[in-house]
From TrEMBL:
It comes from the Bacteria. One of its GO terms (biological process) is error-free translesion synthesis. Residues 3-128 form the ApaG domain. The gene is apaG. This is Co2+/Mg2+ efflux protein ApaG. Gene3D superfamilies: ApaG domain. InterPro entries: ApaG_domain (IPR007474), ApaG_sf (IPR036767).
Amino acid sequence: MITQITKGIKISVETSFEGTFFKNYKMHFAFGYKITIENQSKDSVQLSSRHWQVFDALNNVEMIDGEGVIGKKPVIKPGESHTYSSGCLLTSPIGAMRGHYNMINFTSTRRFRVFIPTFKLYAPFALN
């Protein structure tokens, strides 16, 4: 598990390899990830949007921006957490992701970024 804390918000990431399949005449590698967002600060916060950079070993980089996570904009009170699972497809068996969440502090009404640590994605057969 990979973790990082930004301004009292702890991000923990677990990854899994889900398998391979052909799509549009290309081999694709499916990966899953589970993220826990834990509020260790004294203020309630809300996740408003996300930004991802997805890298694969073939030097492809995909930027993804969107509202919330999996259709939700969770409010996380002090001492509470929000966990969700998602996934991505790569065209190589090795890659990585990193990014940030845009959050709102309900006490100060200020917006701030919480960084998602870089985490590796790899098919077990690709590593010795």
